[in-house]
Amino acid sequence: MPHILTPFLQPTLFAGILGTLLAMTGEVYAKFKRHRSGYGTIFHSVNGKPVDLARIRLVDTHGLTVASAVTDAYGHYRLTAAPGEYVVDVLKPGYVFPSFFLKQHRRSKMYDNVLSSSRIKIKDYGIITKNIPIDPVEGMSTRSKVFRRWIVLSDNAQLAIAYASPVFATIYPLASKKPLIPWLIYAVFVLITLWRIVTFQPGKPAYGTVKDAKSGEPITRVVIRLFDAQFNKVLNTQITSPKGRYAFLVNRGSYYMTLQKAGYKPVRLNYPNITKDSYPLATNVQMKPTGNAPSVDD
């Protein structure tokens, strides 16, 4: 019996090693895929499942609610707020926040960018994409499995392994006396790696940036107004940050946006048919100077 299993032992071990390499580098790939969506997720701290119909609020230092949202069927939410410090309040019957289980965690195999406290500091305009764990009221004696990991690797370490492993993985097939099965296993590994590369895209920023069309530099203190197109009513106003950033969230309807700053030609952007709720308006915009435009730092 041992003689029968011996020919399959090394290929099986080889397949296990390649599978481990894929698992070790999967987090950084999934991280960028998640960032493309531009939303945060509220999830069950014990099993990691997203929680729907949870209400999240941002409360300012005066106790006023400045933004709120309700998670969809996938636990997703989107919020925007001006830079500042806020208290986060999450309400869902049968759950409590902040999480006791995960109060010391900032990332995991399933979720990165975790908000484990009730306070958040927003440094710039953009869509808040924090992933928020909430504890179930019942079954709280069970330790969370979401953050149990065999090894913790930085993003750079994962990328280094991902780039180097296809090269080093050729050693065993080249040295094997019966290379057919090892090469087949390696081919599957390469196909999975190539699929990751083809489908990989950097995370889409959760904000728009206003830049000088001539210099390409971000423009600060641009006044951006969001209008309801049907009633021609101002809904929100933002002033771009030193990095030229802004972001709005809108529900279904028709809108337009104006951008104004002294020394630049005004810009109007039309959004005549928004068909989704909590839709991000965060378009990169270039403004043309009129000839007497001030410095972008003015």
Task: Summarize the structure in words.
The protein is of the alpha+beta class and 298 residues long. It folds into two domains: 1-204, Immunoglobulin-like; 208-287, Sandwich (Immunoglobulin-like). Helix content is 24%, strand content 29%. The protein is built from four helices and 19 strands. It has helices at residues 2-35, 155-168, 171-175, 180-199, and strands at 40-44, 55-59, 65-70, 76-77, 79-80, 84-91, 95-96, 119-122, 127-128, 132-136, 208-212, 223-228, 233-239, 245-246, 248-250, 253-260, 267-274, 279-281, 285-287. The strands form six sheets. It has a four-stranded mixed β-sheet with strand order 4-1-10-7, with no helix packed on it. A four-stranded antiparallel β-sheet has the order 3-2-6-8, with no helix packed on it. Helix 1 packs across helix 2 and helix 1 runs parallel beside helix 4. The radius of gyration is 25 Å and the shape is globular. The N and C termini lie far apart (80 Å). The model is unreliable at 1-5 (pLDDT under 50).
- Tell me what portion of residues adopts beta-strand conformation: 25-35%
Give the tally of β-strands: 19
Rg from Cα: 25 Å
Could you describe the largest sheet, including whether it forms a barrel? 4 strands, mixed
Which CATH-level-2 architecture of the largest domain? Sandwich
Q: Could you state the CATH homologous superfamily of the largest domain?
A: Immunoglobulins
What's the CATH C level of the largest domain? Mainly Beta
Q: State the distance separating the first and last CA atoms.
A: 80 Å
- Provide a count of the helices: 4
